[in-house]
């Protein structure tokens, strides 16, 4: 048997799956980073963190509800609060629908929030070129190409957001909310942190308890690949690219939300009027750049303004935070030195008193 | 060296402010300070009465009212921006189109607000705002082109929003709830002052509500319900259907309908503990105060005492009988 046939029939169907897993892993890591930042500001901004938790729980509940509804199990009980989300099935879960519902429950919260942004941006998404792919490498290249095409369009929209446009501003708020809403950071009822490892453990437990699901999953993707291959339809990679796009939207949303939370954290740690530094730098740099670009006309004015003002804010805030931390360290060092000196003087006095009572 | 020493001393003198920790804050944050409140209310207290807590509503607990001015401001900004900078500027070149769009937005919002709150006064308020705005725009000659009209609407909307914000703020701050050891005093009113007191022994039921904002910011509404029905409202639904048939010679007209009423805990914000902070702490305190005034525990204690006395008497009787037997 020719090796290329093996490549086509065995390896090629796995290529886009590998791409999706890679991007999902990056999404998980980014989400963990954001959650760590949120936990850092928990004490000072309890209301904000509770709100972000609520958004995450809302998306989680919606995913669960969709999972139960689409698999025909039905929703028996639904309750949502800022502390907990509870969705119970109507019937007892059994067989294939139960497995499908569980997959929805495990992966839905990662893909349903970005789906909202995807749907908002759908009218602005241009047509894409799909490559024909019959080997592992071409399938991977095709996946990457589709991701690149969508990613470039999405990033162009994000970078060209006009903050003086109320609709663009609303879109930016939605992006930040989606970023904040990918998984909760803290479970108040149980008083424990919610980590990425909890999600991975749940997925592991599911696959251990349902070993057949892995087999069913791989068989179904191979069947899908063969059908589309023999019908000469190039949509196999496109189906997986869709999940890649959702991951990409999540990654960008998480990045913007992380920057937002980071600036809040910096603001908290800076003393007195310096705490307004991130806000002042951003507003001043943004307005001055926009004013400058009214005199110098370019096609990239919005992109340059957004990138430069965000970078400037991030860099200046980081420097200010580092300087403040250095100052604190110096102060602590001096205080400990002062204490050592005082102890030494006390000891000397004690010795003198002993000598001359 | 001297310079260095001065620098070190300066650094030592500058105190680093620790980030605020979110400790459980008391009612002081959203109301009068304890001292101020006590000074005013203590004069009106009964002999031996003690203040437990003075509360005012959390500003966000009146989000429905706040939304009224937020909408006016946001809609004014969006309309101005759309008429001047968006791709629809050519559509909004005429002052009439801008004004019409503003009126439509205001009317729809007024109807929605009125339906949500089941109070038509919001609709009429919005109609008055829009009418006054139109009159002023005409008088001040802003009704020339779309840009002029949109600019006037922006400024007018912002001014009206500020006035409405102040009004809502004054209304929120007019509420004062005093929890003493024997009653709750509800006070409120901006122009017309209202006051009501409620004794704990009259409270039969306590209803608590915490919305999403309340859960996030830790405030909630507590309605004490009394035997007389104070704190209870009703939801009414009505359905009706009609048939009409007509012709030259005969006509039929019929109407069928029905109404339903459900009793539900509801009171005016002056007569409930509206948006109190911190909710759980206040609710626990209230429950404890009510429990302290319930007569049942004392009655139970009395029964226990009587039972003990009865048992003692029985024992004594037995002892006396045995003594008698021994003597015989």
Distance between the termini of chain B: 112 Å
How many distinct folded domains of chain A? 2
Query: What multimeric state do the chains show?
Result: heterodimer
Structural class of chain A: mainly alpha
Helix count from the secondary structure assignment of chain B: 9
What is the typical, i.e. mean, pLDDT of chain B? 82
Main β-sheet description of chain A: 2 strands, antiparallel
Characterization of this structure:
The complex is a heterodimer of chains A (357) and B (328). Chain A has 357 residues and is mainly α. Chain A folds into 2 domains: 3-268, no CATH class; 275-355, no CATH class. Chain A is built from 11 helices and 4 strands, in the order H-H-H-E-E-H-H-H-E-E-H-H-H-H-H. In chain A, the strands form 2 sheets. In chain A, strands 1-2 form a two-stranded antiparallel sheet. In chain A, strands 3-4 form a two-stranded antiparallel sheet. In chain A, strand 3 (186-187) and strand 4 (192-193) form a beta hairpin. The longest helix of chain A has 55 residues, at 301-355. Chain A starts with a helix and ends with a helix. The mean pLDDT of chain A is 86. With 328 residues, chain B is α+β, with helices and mostly antiparallel strands. Chain B folds into 3 domains: 27-57 and 175-244 and 254-292, Roll (PH-domain like); 60-172; 299-328. Chain B is built from 9 helices and 9 strands. The interface between A and B is medium-sized, with 24 and 20 residues.
Give a concise summary.
By secondary structure, chain A is mostly helical.
Write the layout of secondary structure elements.
The complex is a heterodimer of chains A (357) and B (328).
Chain A: H1 3-11, H2 15-40, H3 46-70, E1 75-80, E2 85-89, H4 95-121, H5 136-159, H6 166-180, E3 186-187, E4 192-193, H7 196-209, H8 211-230, H9 236-269, H10 277-295, H11 301-355
Antiparallel strand pairs in A: 1-2, 3-4
Chain B: H1 2-13, H2 34-42, E1 51-55, H3 63-84, H4 95-117, H5 121-139, H6 146-173, E2 176-180, E3 183-188, E4 194-199, E5 203-209, H7 212-217, E6 220-226, E7 232-246, E8 251-265, E9 273-276, H8 279-292, H9 296-327
Antiparallel strand pairs in B: 1-2, 2-3, 3-4, 5-6, 6-9, 7-8
